[in-house]
């Protein structure tokens, strides 16, 4: 059974975590020792974080009574056989005071966590929250928290931004009015900031928000004008490169696909400039089917611009990584791989190394095999053109198989 939610008194006002070693400062406020020592000695602060009063003394007095009470609560909670409800149903008439309280309280993280639990899977509460201006409140809270975090006023302020984003992610965000509110800078700028530097869970929440507004916006409405797309793409590529979480990588690919679908020319070239082709190529060898298909689709889009084709040709493993997916991952992956190789080798004059790599990696043999098994006329046409155009180059190699040499003659 789940452990009951700890009383707010037991939570450190800085970290919002259960206190292990509670100590009290001269203002009478109690913090966890590790958090308040970081506040004083790592960040050089001279104020009480909760009251912002300037402190004349930095003495920390152990709060033994509170520590014993927390210990007793932990023993009771862990041995309890039944869980305590985390919250009651969010009553509509209480929403105005709840929203006002979130903006007023210095303990916003705890308030937002409780709000999220109350609204989780409660569609009526979510609708009421939106109707009473909840999205606007979250926007103001996130904007303020992000500003304080960037200014170094409160090193824990970004946690507020993350938790507000988590609340926002619980909402459907499917109607035009809600989407318009989220698209405003006070929401979008903090959401993108969370994608860039939030925790793993908060990044998932932020990308869920982007996915929802993208789906609600449709193809006719671009949600990116209020966003620094270059910074967003760079952050998503860093997530893919880190590979720390399969779920994060999957969400990052979804957002990248949406951004590149809405981008042309200079934006795609900028994505190439910050290393998109390199990251996607290096993602392919260990990718599962779904990741491989989306990575190949992104490569196809990027290789439609000259910068993308050049970056692909200059990567030593690009051709072999793409060729390896043919006839191995899925029918869709094979078709996308052929499109990528066709763009690089037929839509422009390819580097000789690209053609060498296609032969050495087995890509040429797979192109010939695809002509026999592929049902897509477009893919067969691209494979045939690759073989017709570059067949004379490949035939000159002594290692080129005799049966393939004869087939190329027949193809021509």
Summarize the structure.
Residues 5-80 form the U-box domain. The protein is mainly α.
Task: Describe the overall structure.
With 412 residues, this protein is mainly α. It has three domains: 8-62, Zinc/RING finger domain, C3HC4 (zinc finger) (Herpes Virus-1); 87-218; 227-357, Leucine-rich Repeat Variant, CATH 1.25.10. The chain is built from 22 helices and three strands. The protein has helices at residues 33-42, 64-79, 95-104, 108-119, 123-131, 134-151, 157-170, 176-182, 185-197, 200-217, 229-242, 246-261, 266-273, 276-283, 289-302, 306-314, 318-325, 331-346, 352-360, 363-373, 377-395, 402-411, and strands spanning 22-24, 30-32, 61-62. Strands 2-1-3 form a three-stranded antiparallel β-sheet. A hairpin with a 5-residue loop joins β1 (22-24) and β2 (30-32). The protein is elongated and about 90 Å long. It starts with 21 loop residues before the first strand and ends with a helix. The model is unreliable at 81-86 (pLDDT under 50).
Q: How is the secondary structure organized here?
A:
Blueprint: E1 22-24, E2 30-32, H1 33-42, E3 61-62, H2 64-79, H3 95-104, H4 108-119, H5 123-131, H6 134-151, H7 157-170, H8 176-182, H9 185-197, H10 200-217, H11 229-242, H12 246-261, H13 266-273, H14 276-283, H15 289-302, H16 306-314, H17 318-325, H18 331-346, H19 352-360, H20 363-373, H21 377-395, H22 402-411
Antiparallel strand pairs: 1-2, 1-3
Basic shape: elongated
Q: How many distinct folded domains?
A: 3
Round the Cα radius of gyration to an integer and report it: 28 Å
Number of helices: 22
- Poorly predicted runs: 81-86
Spatially, the strands of the biggest sheet line up as 2-1-3
Mean pLDDT: 85
SSE string, helices as H and strands as E: EEHEHHHHHHHHHHHHHHHHHHHHH
Q: How many beta strands in the DSSP annotation? A: 3
Which structural class do the helices and strands define? mainly alpha
Function: Functions as an E3 ubiquitin ligase.
EC number: 2.3.2.27
Pfam family, one: ARM_PUB
Catalytic activity: S-ubiquitinyl-[E2 ubiquitin-conjugating enzyme]-L-cysteine + [acceptor protein]-L-lysine = [E2 ubiquitin-conjugating enzyme]-L-cysteine + N(6)-ubiquitinyl-[acceptor protein]-L-lysine
